[in-house]
Amino acid sequence: MTDLSRTPAGSVLAVIPARGGSKGVPGKNLAPVGGVPLVARAVAACVEAGRVTAVVVSTDDPSIAEVARAAGAEVVLRPAAIAGDTATSEAAVLHAMDAHEAMSGAPTGVVLLVQCTSPFITAEEVDGVAAAVLDGGADTAHTVAPFHGFIWREAQDVAGSPLPAGGESFGVNHDKSTRPRRQDRPQDLLETGTAYAMRADGFRAANHRFFGRTALVRTDPARVLEIDEPADLERARALAPLLDPRTTTPGWADVDAVVLDFDGTQTDDRVLIDADGHESVTVHRGDGLGVAALRRAGMPVLILSTETNAVVAARARKLQVPVLHGIDRKDLALKQWCEENGIAPERVLYAGNDVNDLPCFGLVGWPVAVAGAHDVVRASARAITTAQGGHGAIREIAAWLLGPTLAR
Do 206 and 339 belong together in one domain? Predict the structure, then answer.
């Protein structure tokens, strides 16, 4: 039974620290994984959590603030004094909690520290740490994952440097002379660094995320990954197609415009050249049907291509959609087109297949890769079609937005 005398009163505030500076991975908190910036992924998990009543991103960076607001979070601008490399997460959380209470006029019962460097955070993890404090009587809680590895440590000299080759090393969580079987050892639990919960009053007093009784909330070890260096970011992008739910594709309410690459997206990326040097490509009639249905429904459609080619212009005329081709910086052209048409980039679906589409992927809210796209493009996409480019991928995207019969 819950001890009501220990049940925190007030709101459950999730604070996501996301400063602009990062030496290990520049621009880390805005880096997309699965087509979604890290800070937006963390906000989404907190917004979806049933126990959280408010979500705040603490940042010193205007771009992070813009992305956080678009994802559904409040933003607290962090002063420079607690935005440097040596600033603690606790200082950012305390400042954000004070600012939120001043703005809302409501007390905080439980405060959460949620790290956007954990790309595969879930709403269940956020709810789990909150519930451990709200319902379980804990003072603090954090996520952990079962760990079965043998930890070793090199012996160090007085100055803390490893001893020369041949120096002694020792087992930290095991006796190397007996080497117990996994089932005979106590279960070790690895702190994931994903989510922490604290009673707000105790946190103010201790000024630290660990005090009193700490509850451990177990999570799936397959989802544990902290991004501290570029290689971690590459691993996260490679894992996103496996760990992100891919059943969710954009619907009509999610998108205000559709922008399409041409070669490899509306074609199979092959070019036929005759003896006079004239080029021709193969397109899919179903894609034309999809574009026509989008147009009838009132969805703005744009073709954006790097190539200066009469074929691209001819296809645009056939589809009766505007085209921008011969573009070196597709992202700048797309940004200008959005501004001229009053469309927010985060409400744009952009479909592409190759690395020259990545800058546009970083600009829009729905980066989509066609099946068969370059691996790095697939890893950066928020959704991936089952159809190949030139084989009905655009028809499939139209079906996401309009329904499988394209009736609207």
Answer: no
- Kindly state the helix (H) or strand (E) to which residue 357 belongs, with its residue range: none
- Specify the pLDDT at position 86: 78
Are 233 and 281 in a shared domain? no
User: How confident is the model over 281-318, as pLDDT tens digits?
Assistant: 788 999 999 999 999 999 999 999 887 778 888 898 99
> DSSP secondary structure string, 283-317?
--HHHHHHHHHHHHTT--EEEEESS--HHHHHHHH
Q: Is the separation of the CB atoms in 257 and 341 below 8 Å?
A: yes
Q: Which two tokens stand for residue 305?
A: 């291509």
- Domain tally, the chain: 2
Tokens of 186: 């106590």
- Which of 27, 388, 23, 38 lies closest to 226, judged by CA? 38
Least confident of 9-23, 64-78, 118-132: 9-23
How would you list the strands of the sheet with 366-371, edge to edge?
323-325, 301-305, 257-260, 348-352, 366-371, 383-388
pTM of the model: 0.72
pLDDT digits (tens, 9 = 90+) for 11-28: 999 999 999 877 778 889
* Gap between the Cα atoms of 292 and 313, Å rounded: 17
Domain range spanning residue 139?
Answer: 4-148+184-243
Q: Look up residue 339 and give its two tokens.
A: 């501004």
CA torsion sign, 167 to 172 to 174 to 175? positive
- Answer whether 107's CB lies under 8 Å from 101's CB: yes
- Whole-number Cα distances in Å, 21 to 77, 232, 253, 261: 14, 17, 34, 33
In a domain, 172, yes or no: no
DSSP state letter for 221:
G
* Residue carrying the six token digits 């499988």: 404
